[in-house]
Design brief:
This protein has 14 helices and 4 strands. By secondary structure, the protein is mostly helical. It has one domain. The strands form 2 sheets. The protein has a two-stranded antiparallel ribbon with strand order 1-4. Strands 2-3 form a two-stranded antiparallel ribbon. Helix 11 packs across helix 12. The two termini are about 15 Å apart.
Length: about 325
């Protein structure tokens, strides 16, 4: 009971902090925190797949790209308002993820990671394919700045007597969706589906003997993870107001996996730390020195230190801190 109350208190406290944070931050910092929310959503989906079913994916950035392009195409070419594109962005990526999950059933461990990485590597080239130019606009990309479908990109949005400039609008939209998707994931993982995911992760043979269908739950996890990535990609396209193949580089998939590991695989309560890591660690590493290559060395060194000091990620650190109150159960979903 104490564990549930503390989880609820943390969730409500985080919502309150997110609601008032823009009043204390500059416009630029508010905009940065919107990107933290986008990465939070993408890492949340990846954790469902990798942390809860044990399927290593290096293709989350590719599913973000599918969502981002879905949003951009619907806005720029079909006149759909930005907010209404997000469910479709998630659906497009989710269906693609589910379909990929079917042949991926034959793969495990590093072989599955390699197959998903192949998606991330090949998608930017596919987006440049001549016959898809009319859809993806090739190297030129799709510009969303200033079009009527982009909320508050030119004129601030009037809400409850207050003007919301574009940066604050994106911030509040992103974190509202992030909170809703976090709650949905938490409820899903606490129920039968979550128990089935963990059973498949721990032992597919034992899961099958217990009446769990491993193939069904593994493909379902792929679909859910990709759906979350698609929504994040749609928000990313809205925030950057532009997409082209370079908007979603191969490195994005690797960075999201780093964020998921730093968060703590198999737990939802360290995700914020992973999202902050993805957004700010490259910048912090780059400030150490302007010499070529030094930033990469610092980046790698910090990641090694995090793995050594927090082998179970941020969630593991939170569990240790909360153990005197909860016997270590608070931050397990």
């Amino acid at each position: 009971m104490i564990g549930f109350a503390l989880r609820a208190l943390l969730f409500v406290g985080a919502l309150a902090l997110a609601a008032f944070l823009p009043t204390w931050l500059s416009t630029f910092r508010t905009y940065e925190f919107a990107y933290v929310g986008i990465y939070f959503i993408a890492i949340l989906g990846l954790n469902i797949l990798t942390g809860y079913t044990g399927q290593i994916s290096l293709g989350q950035g590719a599913f973000m790209a599918l969502g981002g392009y879905t949003t951009a195409i619907l806005m720029a070419d079909h006149g759909v308002k930005d907010v209404w594109t997000l469910p479709l962005a998630g659906l497009a990526a989710g269906v693609a993820g589910y379909l990929f999950g079917i042949p991926a059933l034959r793969l495990r461990g590093p072989y599955l990671a390699l197959a998903t990485f192949a998606i991330a590597v090949s998608l930017p080239t596919l987006l440049l394919y001549d016959k898809l130019d009319r859809l993806t606009h090739g190297e030129e990309g799709i510009n969303l700045f200033g079009i009527p479908e982009s909320t508050a990109s030119i004129t601030p949005l009037r809400v409850l007597g207050h003007d919301l400039p574009f940066e604050k609008w994106i911030y509040y939209l992103t974190w509202t969706i992030a909170a809703a998707l976090f709650l949905a994931a938490w409820l899903l993982l606490r129920g039968r589906t979550g128990r089935s995911f963990r059973a498949v992760r721990d032992s597919e043979v034992a899961a099958a003997v217990s009446g769990v269908h491993p193939a069904a739950y593994k493909t379902l996890a792929f679909g859910i993870s990709a759906f979350y990535a698609g929504v994040a990609g749609g928000l990313y396209a809205m925030a950057t107001t532009f997409v082209n193949p370079g908007t979603f580089p191969v490195a994005l998939s690797l960075t999201l996996l780093v964020g998921a590991v730093a968060s703590g695989l198999g737990s939802l309560w360290g995700l914020l730390a992973g999202a902050f890591l993805v957004e700010y660690l490259p910048t912090l590493a780059g400030k150490v020195s302007s010499q070529p290559g030094v930033a990469s060395v610092v980046y790698g060194g910090i990641l090694i230190a995090l793995v050594v000091l927090l082998p179970d990620g941020a969630a593991g650190g939170l569990r240790r801190l909360a153990r005197p109150l909860t016997s270590g159960r608070v931050f397990r979903s």
